[in-house]
Amino acid sequence: MCKPLRLFSFLLATLLALPALAAPASPVQRYFQELRTLRADFIQRVYDERGRITQTSSGRMLMQKPGLFRWDYRAPAAQVIVADGARLWTYDVGLAQVTVRKLDKALSATPLALLSGTTPIDESFTVSGVRNRDGLSWYELIPRQDQPEFRVLRVAFKGDTLVTLEIEDGLGQRTRLDFQALERNPALDPAQLRFTPPPGVDVVGDAG
């Protein structure tokens, strides 16, 4: 599974699961409890173990509970990732190729499967208290059991608004999402959360 997709799986799982981490009636808890839809522009940066940026991409994302999302990468290469509740579609515009998989199989090997399971979050993770840095409030989630995909997940808020997600793997490499123009609970067009392969593209996988 490609790194952007793993990262988005983290994002979706966090949005669905994070209320359990917050103290009762905290701004963070209220934010996620009241969250139904989300729309934002994003900048994604990948850092190596020395903190050097090795990749930068940007685009726009949409999310709707439960389990619907759209992930539009616009630069440097166009790619569209859509979860419609049953299948996960990945469209590589440059290659004119669509890959489709059943959603549960596509995400079963990612942190989404762990975070969205029936086990309470605090039983699967050690959760740090709030740390203030650069005007942001940061939460850190460390898995209690070793995971192949990640070592730590960091979530940052400015006030009661989600602004950053960061994943770090066991080699010290980080992938960071910074959100811009974030809208909480906007009305979304249902058609944007469905995907139909464009005419003439190759379709690989189970689209039936």
Characterise the protein shown here.
This protein is an alpha+beta fold and 208 residues long. It has a single domain (36-205), classed as outer membrane lipoprotein receptor (LolB), chain A. It has five helices and 13 strands. Strands 1, 2, 3, 4, 5, 6, 7, 8, 9, 10, 11, 12 and 13 form a 13-stranded mixed sheet that branches. β11 and β12 (174-184) form a beta hairpin. The longest helix has 15 residues, at 3-17. The chain is globular, with a radius of gyration of 17 Å.
Structure, briefly:
This protein has five helices and 13 strands. It is an alpha+beta fold. Strands 1, 2, 3, 4, 5, 6, 7, 8, 9, 10, 11, 12 and 13 form a 13-stranded mixed beta sheet that branches.
Key descriptive features of the protein:
alpha+beta; outer membrane lipoprotein receptor (LolB), chain A; single chain; 208 residues; 13-stranded mixed sheet
CATH structural class: Mainly Beta
Shape: globular
* CATH topology type: outer membrane lipoprotein receptor (LolB), chain A
**Helix and strand composition category:** alpha+beta
Integer average pLDDT? 79
Biggest sheet record = 13 strands, mixed
